[in-house]
Design goal:
- The chain is mainly alpha-helical and 413 residues long.
- The chain folds into three domains: 47 residues, no CATH class; 184 residues, no CATH class; 160 residues, no CATH class.
- Helix content is 63%, strand content 3%.
- The strands form two sheets. Strands 1-2 form a two-stranded antiparallel sheet. A two-stranded antiparallel ribbon has the order 3-4.
- The longest helix is centred in the middle third of the chain and has 35 residues.
- It catalyses: Fe(II)-heme o + 2 A + H2O = Fe(II)-heme a + 2 AH2.
- Pathway: Porphyrin-containing compound metabolism; heme A biosynthesis; heme A from heme O: step 1/1.
- It is a multi-pass membrane protein.
Amino acid sequence: MQRLLFPRLKALMGNPCLRLLGPRAAPRTQCGCSCGIRHLLRPGQYSTISEVALQSGRGTVSLPSKAAERVVGRWLLVCSGTVAGAVILGGMTRLTESGLSMVDWNLIKEMKPPTHQEEWEAEFQKYQQFPEFKILNHDMTLAEFKFIWYMEYSHRMWGRLVGLTYILPAAYFWRKGWLSRGMKGRVLALCGLVCFQGLLGWYMVKSGLEEKPDSHDIPRVSQYRLAAHLGSALVLYCASLWTSLSLLLPQHKLPETRQLLWLRRCAHGTAGLVFLTALSGAFVAGLDAGLVYNSFPKMGESWIPEDLFTLSPILRNVFENPTMVQFDHRILGITSVTAVTVLYFLSRRIPLPRRTKMAAVTLLALAYTQVGLGISTLLMYVPTPLAATHQSGSLALLSVALWLMNELRRVPK
């Protein structure tokens, strides 16, 4: 038995492919033995084989764990970028009042836009049957309809691109074994949230297409559904960006002092305030609350307007009274920029790495820029380009707040 086993064991242990791999001259090189393993290493890179699988009688080596993490991190960074594009494009769709131009929802059929005059006229006739045309756009021409239709079409097609950007690479990485057990659960949750986001978008649009015989108000989507649609998009964006930064940025080993603990808590609270302020913007957009009081710092002639609590019960005013909605958005914005300022001065009292300091300075600059954009948008009666820039600024501010949080995260033991 020994004569049969030990020679084979010695031959296996002597295989250079199972030793520590040294530097290679090319990204993909063939080893000198007869095992047929191709090594995925960069020049000068050292790694160990973390997993050897036998498939069809041949040995295959997965990517080293660090290399796989970088690939997944870059993919999620691209995904978060596509979500940011969807949020910005959705804001433009809302500002141009284009969201109700497509009255049907079909995952495949609506991907092909109308091409002939007859098709455009048929699409326009369908739009004419709904409240927005009857009450608001009854004198709209076909050329004007094409503009708002293409705005909504672009938003929907971009949403499909977001879905493909998440789902197809996720399936590929899963099959290749580049996702850890914890990452698999996170990726599944992200892909599920993408699908939920698409369904929620149509659920939101339906609220603006419903007939309301006893109402002569301007047809618009429900501000509750709009906030849910934006909120889920922001959650998807934050989760993707946070995971990407955690995989790509090396973690700082900061001394766990009381000052650092307070700074970390302040960063978390500030990011939460920025998120809440951005979410409150959905209610401002849904109720056109930016057109109620176009003055600053006062609202009209007073600091606190008299029509804050005109609805009953009182809680309805927070979500349905345009005056209260604008007032809340102002307070949240001022509170957020105050929190960012406090966070910045706290960060100056602690020795921090250069990259962390850069995140704090960038957050401060963006916060005051965003306040300036918001005030300008209000005073100029919400011009579309400026309002779109303000909406994009909220996403940029939230991104940098997440970056700073990631810089300050605790090193796992």
